[in-house]
Amino acid sequence: MIPIQEPNYGNGLIVMSFVVAVMLMALPLPDWAVNWRPAWVALVLMYWCMAVPDRVGIAIGWFLGLILDVQQGTLLGQNALGLALLAFLTIKSYQRMRVFPLAQQAVLICFYLLFYELIMLWIMGYSGTGSRDWTYWMPAITSMLLWPWLFIILRDLRRKYHIS
Question: Is this structure's pTM higher than 0.85?
């Protein structure tokens, strides 16, 4: 008997969540708030890497990073490398992260995003555009504070549309 493959429902929802995240990264903010913008694409990528690691992984992180590089005008491959490494870390630890309460997940997300920001700072330092302001690290903190709400919204959408 040939096993019947279940169709991949929900790919559109995953793609739309990434589109919304990229659009949120493109929203204009006042100068004082630019460094406080949450890392929307990284948060959504980490959620989907935790929820469906067989469908969203390192290659998706690399592609999203290239989109961010073009959108933000950064060195081509900078965000791609960072998001690919972030996806790798998330996929390596997703089984542990799933059982953590949301507060612990948020703290771990903060550490992962600090690692991502460190990679970005390292690359910017080599290209001569490094930031010397302490607010450079704030996206990790604001993302940590938003993680529980983002997690709940995406989890409810994933359950509603039976994405697994």
Answer: yes
